[in-house]
Amino acid sequence: MQLFATSSFAPPPSLRLRRDRAERILNGLRAAVVFLLTASALMYAPHLSRELNTANVLVLGPTLVWTVAQYLIWYRREELPDWLSSINPVVDVTAVTAIIGGYAVAQSGVLALRSPIFLMYFVVLAGRPVASSVRKAAFISALAWVEYAVLLVWLWATHRVPLVVNPIDAVATARVTPLDEGAKLVLLGVFGIVSTYATYWVEHLVREASKESAERQRVVTRLVQAELDTLKLQLNPHFIFNALNSAMALIATDPPAAERMVSELSDFLRLVLSTSSEQEVPLERELGLLDRYVAIQRVRFQDRLTVNCNIEDGVRAALVPSLLLQPLVENAIRHGISPRAGAGYVQVCARKAGDKLVLTVLDNGVGVRARRSRERSRGTGLGLTNTRTRLIHLYGEGHEFESGPRDEGGYAVHISIPFRLGRLSPARNGAPTEQQLAAVGQS
After folding, report:
1. Which residues of the chain have pLDDT under 50?
2. What are the C-alpha distances in Å from 315 to residues 90, 100, 110, 358, 412?
3. pLDDT of residue 434
4. What is the reported pLDDT for 142?
5. To pair with 391 at 20 to 30 A between CA atoms, which of 20, 121, 179, 268?
6. Residue 427: its pLDDT value, please?
7. Which domains are seen in the chain, by residue range?
8. Residue 223 has what pLDDT?
9. Please, are residues 377 and 339 in contact by the beta-carbon 8 Å criterion?
């Protein structure tokens, strides 16, 4: 029962593709064998009787037409019809039986049974493990055994084969012994069982390999997801620490400003929590988080900070990693704008370039040397490092990440990721509209 249990389940795609490829190869071998047999029949035709030539034509002709027709009708498809793996071996087994029977009728039963064409049964069964399911292999094995057994019974019943019990006498008198033919049936039955078990074993191995591969993929996916979640969780306390430090610095000098900063921080954290379970969100929602963050920083920097958002039409619904822009803008403000004596600006750009979404965050801060010195002294730089790592996990080689100094002064980060549209949601819970973002950037 276990031998046939696996066939009740749908085969994995890998097994189906292997069987399709094997069936194409077997059909090529079938075509080669039929062409060789046809060529041999043509070479021997002048020396054979009319009846034998007729038997060859009646069997080899339809088999050759059927083999060639498969190439013309189905071989341009990505996958062959599933029923071909059942019909082809039935045709092959029946053709072998027919040609043995045809030789017996046209010439001699002894000639037919001693013909090496009997070995073609084993050739057909040998291809079952790589091209058929267990049930199909068992059916073809049984069909070959039954057809040959019926052929023997018919030949003996019609007295087309003279019998002799002694195998030595059978060779000397050009007769057939039941012992030899019984041995052929035993060998054919054993080979059929081996072929069926080999089919089961191949199917079992492919299923186990497919199951293990799927399990490994699930484990890898969970590990990557856990690492991505860890990277995101690192950003939240990093930002909260910086924001609370800024609020504490304002308590003594400007309590109302500190109160506004804590209020804006509360709104920001509420929006962050709403996207905590998502790795990718529409760009619109990222801009909403960025709006809240800019509002927090403006409490501290007042007129010293200007943030401009230049968003191309049609890209607001594009999917981006959640918490992508805020760490980059925070990095620009903390390490580029904050050390400046005067006012500074940060510009965020988003545009579509072919099948890519290109994001740019640039500033006119203190420059790369002062920036690196400041990052080393304070142990920061987490925003750029985490962003780069998350992009590698999410997009692999499908992304580009570049950061470095600008010729005009300051620093720039350029990111390119695959352009994929998400679903835009209406402005809610304080999420900004385009007019609100423009107003924040220009204020």
Report:
1. 1-8, 373-380, 426-443
2. 59, 73, 82, 10, 21
3. 41
4. 94
5. 268
6. 43
7. 2-216 (no CATH), 254-442 (3.30.565.10)
8. 63
9. no
| pTM confidence score | 0.51
Residue 8: what pLDDT? 43
Residue 117 CA to residue 41 CA, distance in Å, equals: 13
The pLDDT of residue 356 is 92
Which three-class secondary structure string do you get for the chain?
CHHHHHHHCCCCHHHHHHHHHHHHHHHHHHHHHHHHHHHHHHHHHHHCCHHHHHHHHHHHHHHHHHHHHHHHHCCCCCCCCCCHHHHHHHHHHHHHHHHHHHHHHHCCHHHHHHCHHHHHHHHHHHCHHHHCCHHHHHHHHHHHHHHHHHHHHHHHHCCCCCECCCHHHHHHCCCECHHHHHHHHHHHHHHHHHHHHHHHHHHHHHHHHHHHHHHHHHHHHHHHHHHHHHHHHHHHHHHHHHHHHHHHHHHHHCHHHHHHHHHHHHHHHHHHHHCCCCCEEEHHHHHHHHHHHHHHHHHHHHHHEEEEEEECCCCCCEEEECCCHHHHHHHHHHHHHCCCCCCEEEEEEEEEECCEEEEEEEECCCCHHHHHHHHHHHCCCHHHHHHHHHHHHHHHHHCEEEEEECCCCCEEEEEEEECCECCCCCCCCCCCCHHHHHHHHHC
- What does the pLDDT read at residue 281? 86
